[in-house]
Design goal:
The chain has about 280 residues and is of the alpha+beta class. It folds into two domains: about 170 residues, Nucleotide cyclase, GGDEF domain (Alpha-Beta Plaits, 2-Layer Sandwich); about 90 residues, no CATH class. The chain contains seven helices and ten strands. Strands 1, 2, 3, 4, 5, 6, 7 and 8 form an eight-stranded mixed sheet that branches. The chain has a two-stranded antiparallel sheet with strand order 9-10. The relative contact order is 0.11.
């Protein structure tokens, strides 16, 4: 039997379920099922917009993973606000209201299934949330930037099933009069990474070129170049010269643009120095 692939890591986990789903199904099984499915479809779209990944959709529950605490909390609040507006249009009592819990902890991914202490903690925290509410652990609270327009209510130390130590839990809400921050797109994150790579590559290449130029020109050594008296110009050097043209990315991989751009940057800034070193 093939071994199950497992990988462990620290992640931000969001767990959500529909409060009172059993009662909703008893009232109208088909309608409740359709509305719950629609709720989680919309929530999944929100999670993806905020750079999260939905791992499981089972019945009346959803499990998602985020890399950043801020993305998870903003996605949760964005959905809850949208869900409140969504439910207003119904004139019956089949109203799927969602509770959300968010925690940070170690997870294990095995056969595309998410398990681990972080998952269990998120489930336990979700059970403390009110219908239409969001609860987070103290670790999430500390990881959130102060600039975010959130109001936090400390619910104190909570004894959670399966955990020996108490966990401090906070209820989080959007501050009155504020709006949900826009998602930071992956393209923007990719551009930031590309810029950092370009800066690092440029710094390394500048160092290499500088060492090469110094070794070749030896500016510390005295040099006397004869001057052509009739034209008032320096004669050509008796050593080989090097001309460097900007590089083009011929790999077909856009991620390598930073390398050719870095070389172009170097050429533009080093050329005057090369000419001075040659004439000195």
């Amino acid at each position: 039997m093939a071994k199950t692939h497992q990988s462990g890591k620290l992640a931000v986990i969001l767990h959500a379920d529909v409060a009172g789903s059993t009662e909703l199904v008893q009232r109208d099984e088909r309608l409740a099922h359709d509305r719950i499915q629609e709720v989680f479809r919309r929530f999944s779209d929100t999670i993806k917009r905020y750079n999260g990944r939905v791992h499981e959709l089972r019945g009346d529950a959803l499990l998602a993973e985020f890399a950043r605490a801020s993305d998870a909390v903003i996605a949760a609040l964005a959905f809850q606000l949208d869900q409140a507006d969504y439910l207003v249009k119904f004139d019956d009592d089949i109203l799927p209201k969602v509770r959300i819990g968010i925690a940070m902890g170690e997870i294990i991914i095995a056969d595309n299934t998410l398990t681990g202490a972080g998952v269990v903690l998120a489930q336990r925290v979700e059970q403390l949330a009110e219908s239409g509410g969001v609860c987070i652990t103290a670790a999430l609270h500390e990881a959130l930037p102060n600039r975010l327009p959130f109001d936090m209510t400390n619910l104190g130390e909570q004894e959670l099933k399966g955990f020996d130590e108490t966990i401090r839990v906070h209820r989080v809400e959007l501050r009155q009069g504020e709006s949900i921050p826009d998602p930071e797109t992956r393209n923007h994150q990719s551009a930031q990474m590309k810029t950092r790579k370009r800066i690092k590559a440029t710094a390394v290449l500048i160092f290499i070129v500088a060492v090469g130029v110094l070794s070749w020109s030896r500016p510390w050594a005295p040099k006397d170049l004869p001057v052509l008296e009739e034209r008032g110009e320096y004669s050509l050097p008796d050593k080989p010269s090097i001309a460097v043209l900007p590089f083009s990315n011929m790999s077909g991989n856009p991620e390598q643009e930073y390398f050719s751009d870095g070389m172009t940057h170097i050429v533009n800034h080093i050329s005057p120095w090369l000419d001075t070193a040659r004439r000195s």
